[in-house]
Design goal:
homodimer, alpha/beta, Rossmann fold, four-stranded parallel sheet, 10 strands, globular, threonine deaminase activity (chain A), Ser/Thr_Dehydratase (chain A), L-serine ammonia-lyase (chain A), pyridoxal phosphate (chain A)
């Protein structure tokens, strides 16, 4: 391994004047969009790659998205060859970026986990890598007071899993998590409504990076143990949130991240307070700005035309 | 007030911001390019560093902070004042957008809209790159160069101070300006501390007609490569950067990014003003609030880029 340091960085938390004004309560942003590779995925994946046992000759990741980018970057930084297996719907620019990181990219049909397993020894499966919010140190360092709630997007639930772990370590196990999803990628919401670990028949949301049909087992478990408020927004709301956020905070995120931001832009925090699901007297609300690479101004325009 | 106002917090008002490699810019430049993401500071720009520090260490007995700036310094001052529990008055020129005035008022500041600004303060607050600790913590190896935008030169002053503290006093600074706000370049060319007759660049936050005395002094002591780009190049850089790195910055910041997008780093290496074997190049992404997608479109139309 070339380096002992973490592959991710400690990212800033800052107040959002614009969102605080809209929500009528203090809103902070955890800027994981400023991570190397542009999303929070480098946390869990970087850690996993770094701590992988010696003897692994190659990292393999099945992901055409941010996990794939994080894996390719981690591999390059650690001096380990990487193979990223991506579905054939992956944009060319993403494939090119992964190759620029030095990874071998195999464009497969529908991504098959078994194909990956044949090749190598270290295997990272999207959605299962636990997101680690760097234990409680970063959480408590960032947030001087106990937060009123943490707002985040849910795809497979890795981010939620890590955040709850961090909250527990900080002795903040009663801090509710507002778990945002888009309609058509609402695997957590469906499971919580059904009371069982269901699978969505299809992913129909434009927020493809939330597109995990079945939320992780750990997330299912935590939904029964931790105060989680599961909310779903439309693609329109997620995309509008992206559009407003780039003007409000000068950061361009994917619709997947827009889902979390819609908690403010679509008045969900306000409604939850009105419904007494969140207290009126609410501590600082922290939104995890998970980031994401699969967006550009042109893509945003297209999304707006498609969904709005 | 009889009693001095108590400072609410002993903590810094700015944060330690990430440095990350830019794959896109590295590919373009053909050499390692890193970004210091000061766009992720509270208030969206690096200004909170110097201004936050200044406000925090202000002597007791000050009952109010006053700042003359319709830009990022004003925002940083308003925010600092609110965090420290001190009333603030921000004096802004009449060309300041309404949305900026509103934001300052949202921070609790009294805003006075004045005519042409009398510059007592702007440009003099030394930017502190948090001594050498943040610099050395961020950059494990000695950088090949630091690239930054120059308005009044406060950022440059602080970076050079940080480099000296890290014993990296030979690391060149590539000082980027836009034509029409090129006060440093004009002074270096003239060999004296000249004043530009007017600011004609769209990068208004670089619009200081005379660079700071400290910057003038440093231009004679430190390896500084002064480069000027057009407004078009600065704005094109802003546009490309939002797609490459998902961050929307002002044209003032675009000037620094144009060092890569306009091939200036490459040219400097070809001209041997920067070594062929170059350590990591760090671009300070200074950020800035006075930009939106609509403003970017308007600028493109205005500059004939569309």
């Amino acid at each position: 391994m070339k380096t002992q340091q973490d592959l991710h960085v400690a990212t800033p938390v800052r107040e959002s004047l614009a969102l605080t004004k809209l929500a009528g309560t203090s809103i902070y942003l955890k800027l994981d969009s400023s991570q190397p590779t542009g999303s929070f995925k480098i946390r869990g994946l970087g850690h996993l790659c770094k701590t992988a046992k010696r003897g692994y000759e190659r990292f393999v990741c099945c992901s055409g998205g941010n996990a794939g980018m994080a894996a390719a970057y981690s591999a390059r930084k650690l001096g380990v060859p990487a193979t990223i297996i991506v579905p054939n719907v992956t944009p060319n620019i993403t494939v090119e970026k992964m190759r620029d990181e030095g990874a071998t990219v195999i464009i497969h049909g529908k991504v098959s986990i078994a194909y990956g397993q044949e090749l190598v020894l270290a295997f990272v499966y999207k959605g299962k890598a636990t997101h680690l919010w760097r234990s409680s140190k970063e959480l408590e360092h960032d947030l001087k007071e106990k937060p009123g709630a943490i707002v985040l997007s849910v795809g497979g639930g890795g981010l939620l899993n890590g955040v709850v772990e961090g909250l527990r370590r900080a002795n903040w196990a009663d801090v509710p998590v507002v778990a945002m999803e888009t309609m058509g990628a609402h695997s957590l919401h469906a499971a919580m409504e059904a009371g069982e670990h269901v699978t969505l028949p299809a992913i129909t949301s434009v927020a493809t990076t939330l597109g995990v049909a079945k939320v992780s087992a750990q997330t299912m478990k935590l939904s029964q143990e931790h105060p989680i408020l599961s909310e779903v927004v439309t693609d329109q709301e997620a995309v509008k949130a992206v559009e407003r956020f780039v003007d409000d905070e000068k950061i361009l995120v994917e619709p997947a991240c827009g889902a979390a931001l819609a908690a403010v832009y679509s008045g969900i925090i306000t409604r939850l307070r009105d419904e007494r699901k969140l207290p009126q007297h609410l501590g600082p609300v922290v939104i995890v700005v998970c980031g994401g690479n699969n967006i550009s101004l042109e893509q945003l325009d297209k999304c707006i035309l498609t969904v709005c």
